[in-house]
Amino acid sequence: MNCGVLVFPNVEELDFVGPWEFLGVWKKFARGPENCFLVAPSLTPVSCAKGMIVQPHISFEQCPVLDFLVVPGGEGTRKEIENKTLIDFIAARAAECKAVLSVCTGSFLLHRAGLLSGKRATTHWSSLDKLRALGDVIVVEERFVRDGNIWSSAGVSAGIDAMLAVIDDFAGEQAAGIVQFATEYYPLVKIYGNFDKNPQAPAYVKKAS
Amino acid sequence: MNCGVLVFPNVEELDFVGPWEFLGVWKKFARGPENCFLVAPSLTPVSCAKGMIVQPHISFEQCPVLDFLVVPGGEGTRKEIENKTLIDFIAARAAECKAVLSVCTGSFLLHRAGLLSGKRATTHWSSLDKLRALGDVIVVEERFVRDGNIWSSAGVSAGIDAMLAVIDDFAGEQAAGIVQFATEYYPLVKIYGNFDKNPQAPAYVKKAS
User: Cα(A9)–Cα(A17) distance, rounded to whole angstroms?
Assistant: First the structure.
């Protein structure tokens, strides 16, 4: 099995490294995908939104058939949505995938690739209205949502929860548990300030508070 | 203010990118440190434990005085603990820092740098006994712990919770809230499998289950 994690200029770091870490642990400890790649249009190093610089492992041209594709978000999506090569790559590869997972504003790239029309999907809370305005997406305010083989998660850190759910769905609860235990993903749920009561907070956050 | 995040071969990806993301969001949205660097002995690209390759921003020699230092863990720590240049860097810079935060087995690097003797500290659950065996550390099984300006967190994902607590401590709850909201860090607490009841699970996980 092959897993591709897309990167592009101004991609948000945690959007892709959260799922990347969980994929890597799945591979190492619970018989996950044999190959995990950071994939980009070319092998040029990629400058992320918060300044981290990563080296893609493979270019679109070199990329084998993918079983899983992670499409992160970040400021860079505003530009990449006009990048036909990147959008075409997502559209073509999604057709072969067992699961495609967008994180944060990565959902706008999935939409442009024609993958969200008539589907339930989500994004970062600050972009929910923009996703609704596209008109053909059933926008939900959950931490993540699945519709067929298309998964989408809320902002930045939510990709971690979604990735774990994808592993559970594909490989079972024991595999997801091994990954959760190895990464010690038993978060403290401490709310700082009162942003969970902000009018813009997504429904799943308001519901929990 | 300057913030350094240490990287070295076989560093665990999420150990450093979790805090990195939160530092970057703190900088961008809540008046955090002006400068955040990935710092390494040299500018040679670093291959991480799960295969990601990152480009350090500055070498030890180029590194300015630091206000915050993040010391991640991962398999690479087993080798780096013998790297005198790296250990000396941690020891020297920690003396200037408002806060030093180790994630996962990064605590062993802090210990070798002389920063944990007689102090309360923690690490990844699978290394708690090894940390105890050092003899001079008061090992606690919390998600993270602070002792003076030294903070240490449990495995991999715990660095995120600890970083947020450092921001709260240093810049106040409103700043931590802004970072939590922007990164949408309101995790789902779903337990997969029954690893939370594993004899090796740390006390804070057992207590919650």
Answer: 15
